[in-house]
Amino acid sequence: MKFLIVFVALFAIALARPDIEVVRQDSDVGPESFKFSVETSDGTKREEEGQLKNAGTDNEYIAVHGSFSYVADDGKTYSVVYTADENGFQPKGDHIPVA
Question: Which domain of life is it from (predicted)?
């Protein structure tokens, strides 16, 4: 369900800018895992995959890892690689401060 929400939000953003087109889109969604990637004509890219862990238990969660990149208004490309699992959301990128 979370995947669907994120995917719809990304698709809505792409539709909000009619001058930007989706140039590549792939997805594979199953009952216990998903994988998708999308690239738009403005250079934005996103890839993500997730898998259901501890299915049917009180500790059930979706472990996700992925990445996205975009060209900002300053002309630089910013990239983020992330993991989201039982330990929370953990983004990494050259522009993200490290604690």
Answer: Eukaryota
